[in-house]
Amino acid sequence: MTGTDRSPGGAVAPSSEPLPERQVALIDLLDRLLTGGVVITGDVVLSIADIDLVRVSLRALIVSIGPDTPSPWPAARPPGGGDDG
Amino acid sequence: MSDSVVYAYAVVRAADGVGAAAGALAGVAGGPVRLTAGSRDPGVLLAVGEVPAADFREEALRRRLEELEWLETVARAHHAVVEALAAVTTVLPLRLATVYVDEAGARAALDEGARAFAERLSLLAGHREWGVKVYADPSAAPPPPAPAADGLSPGRSYLRQRREQRSGREEVYRDARTAAGRVEEAALRYAAGRARHRVQQGTLAGAAGENVLNDAFLVADDRTEAFRTDVAGAAQGLTGVRVEVTGPWAPYSFAVPAEGNGDAEDAQDTEDTEGTQGRQGDAEGAHDTQGAGGAGSARGPEGVRGAADARGPEGGSAP
């Protein structure tokens, strides 16, 4: 195989395979890698995957939370943050 | 040995050339990729590779995953491996950062799930995942026709203009719902499964307009052409609406059946029995199994529109 075309991002670009021509958008990738995929448990190290990655994904995907885009999950609201409106 | 741990990429169906494909890859952290077999089913392999323990042991990983740049590097490397393997055989991608202390642990996990993996691989064979996103972009709609200034006072003509703008926005969101409906029809015709993803917002969502639908579909290879054609035409004749198709993807969004066996058939393999079908919000079963974040999130144009458009057009008609 021709393993020569390797971009710093880690994307190997062999010629004959049906890879998308453009690099995929990170957000589309994270949609899949952080909420999709098989979760197999059974190892100590792994146990964080279920829990923490969800949080990571939320941070990564919805960075800007504001009045216009309220947080869709009930966490991380500053205590005593006034009324809910 | 203890300065490295084992990173697992995907469960793969044994096939000609898959070992060679793996051997040619550089995986996460640049490490080699290899296939390992369990003791239960020689037809189901696990793609693994060593990664530095300094970055991938629990504590470090927890910390590093919060760094977007590092996360991206790992995600792209993981993806490159999955893609390359998917090109030669059927794969079940694993969730990002599935790490084992050693290969024995990884093999044990493979054995434990061997039967389920084999079944799933059979269902996914000959299918690819396609992403479909619908965007509503009011700013892309043509501006309302210049107000015929038939003797209106500046104030009134301003109000009228505002009203027209608003109804323009309404129209765009209505059109977006229409497009979403067409996507759904195409899916019912051609897709074997559907998974909903949270609509994309925030700084990583760079695309213009508001993402109102972010779904993934599992499509058999021989139906891909028709599916893509239909979906690509979903925005036809609609203004301010854009449909974006991504893929083909390895079946990330379909790697596990929907939780609870009752849903499994819904997510998989049914061509036209998507429940009662029709409404966006209904056929949800498909993928919400891991949707902690998705739980209350806006899905479908309705939810989004409600949020974006809380004030209806009635606000501004003072005489």
Automatic annotation (TrEMBL), chain A:
Ribosomal protein in keyword set: no
Primary location recorded for the protein, binned into one broad class: other
Domain of life according to the entry: Bacteria
Pfam families hit by this protein: Gas_vesicle
Keyword ATP-binding: no
Keywords: Gas vesicle
Bilayer-crossing regions: none
Region annotation (Disordered) ranges: 66-85
UniProt-annotated location(s): Gas vesicle
Recorded family membership: Belongs to the gas vesicle GvpA family.
Protein name (record): Gas vesicle protein
Organism listed in the record: Streptomyces zhihengii
TrEMBL record, chain B:
InterPro entries: GvpL/GvpF
Pfam families named among the record's database cross-references: GvpL_GvpF
Region Disordered: start-end pairs: 136-176, 254-319
Domain of life: Bacteria
Location of the protein in the cell: Gas vesicle
UniProt keyword terms in alphabetical order: Gas vesicle
Biased composition (Acidic residues): 262-274
Biased composition (Basic and acidic residues): 161-176
UniProt entry tagged with the keyword Nucleus: no
Family affiliation: Belongs to the gas vesicle GvpF/GvpL family.
Protein name: GvpL/GvpF family gas vesicle protein
Source organism per UniProt: Streptomyces zhihengii
